[in-house]
Amino acid sequence: MSRRGLRVEGLRVQISQAGRLLVPVDDVGFAIGANECVALLGESGCGKSLTALALMRLLPEVAQVTAGRVDLGDTDLLGLPELAMRGVRGGRLAMIFQEPMTSLNPVMRVADQIGEALAAHRGLVGEAARAEVERLLQAVGLDAGRQWDYPFQLSGGQRQRALIAMMLAGEPEVLIADEPTTALDVLVQDQILKLLKDLQTRRGMSLLLITHDLDVAGDMADRVAVMYAGQIVEWASRASLYATPRHPYTRKLFAVLPRPERRGQRLDSLPGRVPAADAQHLGCRFADRCPEAFPRCHGEAPSLLQVAPDHAVRCHLFFPADIGNGASARVAAPISPPPPARVESMQPEPGEPGPPRGRAADALLEVRDLAVHFPIRRGLLRRVVGSIKAVDGVSLSIAPGETLALVGESGCGKTTLARAVLRLLEPTAGQVMLAGRDLAGLRGERLRRLRREMQIVFQDPFSSLNPRMKVGAILEEGMRSLLPELDAQARSERVAVRLEQVGLPADAAGRHPHEFSGGQRQRIAIARALTVEPRLLILDEPTSALDVSVQAQILNLLADIQARQGLAYLFITHNLSVVGYLAQRVAVMQGGRVVEEGRAETLLARPRSDYTRRLLAAAPGHLRA
Ligand code: SF4
């Protein structure tokens, strides 16, 4: 009987670049059985995606597999001639990527793209292919009429479904999904993950899920491989790993997560970064960041050891267990991280009297019946035939020093509301009051003075900073236009203070954004917003593009700044764990309206609207009802 599933042993990927030798994947091994889901977990730069590309034999030209073995069922994939591999790729072994637009052909209709895969891998053409396209679209929950659309006519979730349908066309034995839902909101993410799980069980398919999200891995995987610096450092059943994470890196990944029960506490931190692929390692690759490192860690590389029947760890703190009695053995007792310090002024205690629902006491920002309608124009004369009500009668308020989270699916009007509050968009109706002053009708100097008091930090620190400008100039830019009374000396002093406040060195001012990591760039964006001393920060998904370790640093930084300066935050996010950890109040938006608003603990524990209940039910992990 032929074997099914995927087995990877001792995989090593090498890159030769400008005389340097990089080893981004080193001695990686795992197995996925039929009808099993394995999650490959870790921060960016740990080698997860390169491992997947190596399995697909789609590595970039500069990279090569120099050791190891990959078996798809009984087929040795690394030994196959390229022509034979083309028959396997997209057929028995398929892969879906994070951004479906990179995999879908933008100038081909969905039906033609799926049809191409059907003809190549199953020889289906004509009527049989047409019927199969419809069956596949139905399987992924896409209306049959969508087959005539081009990719740009589909939403993000629909494109991901179309791509999954295309990948299923070859009836794969193994499907690799590389961060398939990272760019999607919580409701669409839930639909896509359920779809993948359903397809895996119904078809007996093996699923390799690459993710940095512990909650997603916890919901989906049967077994989990944690990767760090190109190696697997922990390999366990989901039950064992989530009950008792053993490797210090895995334990840190859990400890840095924002959780409602950690409200009012500083998040644990994981300082430093994943070492570069060309770093020379004498000992453990995690040693520079490990709170439990001891002298042996710096001189001797640990091996992956079986410490329980379904659990292996690469760490000198453990030694092989007597698997017979199931006990995990450990050389030294774990040194627990210090208890998180309290941030005194960060959050009121549960039960502490708060402002009435829907209104913050002594509001800094008050939004009343705000509407932003976009006209729909048709015909030669571009007549207005209707309107899109992006924001439709929203009222909310935020007190000084308070955090109001704004949640809802993509397209519900959150960002449009933020832009209208900042007067980057002219509202159709309603009022925006800042510290009792109405922004409507303000122009010139008076608008400029009020703008200074509200600043925004965007989601993507890579596109929100001008790559040609030095950081010092980026930070000075806002001051030049909003605080013209400051001279060059005063501006540069303020730049130095803000850089220090966000934890960046003074010499950062003379460097360009590309010299910094994603987390450091988000610190620069926060420093830029702070230079004009605002009273309200609008944070538009400020951590969703960051690893969990960097997210924890940014959330701690925001809490520190708020505690010190009493800033108010309007925090736009789809991450309900962050909401539960950080916000005092939450407003839930759907279709341009606020459908529910209230104190965070109450709303998350006892949602009143069906829509909020749906959002909570779709959230991965422990928030799920
Ligand atoms: Fe930490 Fe040492 Fe274990 Fe590496 S081997 S994870 S440095 S304790």
Report on the architecture of this protein.
The protein has 625 residues and is α/β, with parallel strands linked by helices. Among the domains are: 107-171, no CATH class; 401-426 and 440-623, Rossmann fold (3-Layer(aba) Sandwich). Helices cover 31% and strands 24% of the residues. Residues 331-358 have low confidence and may be disordered. Iron/sulfur cluster binds next to loops.
Q: Return residue spans where pLDDT drops below 50 for at least 5 consecutive residues.
A: 331-358
Number of strands: 24
Beta-strand portion reads 15-25%
Present as ligands are:
iron/sulfur cluster
Shape: globular
Largest sheet: 8 strands, mixed
CATH hierarchy class name of one domain: Alpha Beta
Supply the CATH superfamily name of one domain: P-loop containing nucleotide triphosphate hydrolases
Strand order of the largest sheet: 6-7-8-3-9-10-12-11
Into which percent range does the helicity of residues fall? 25-40%
- Radius of gyration, CA atoms, in whole angstroms: 26 Å
Structural class: alpha/beta
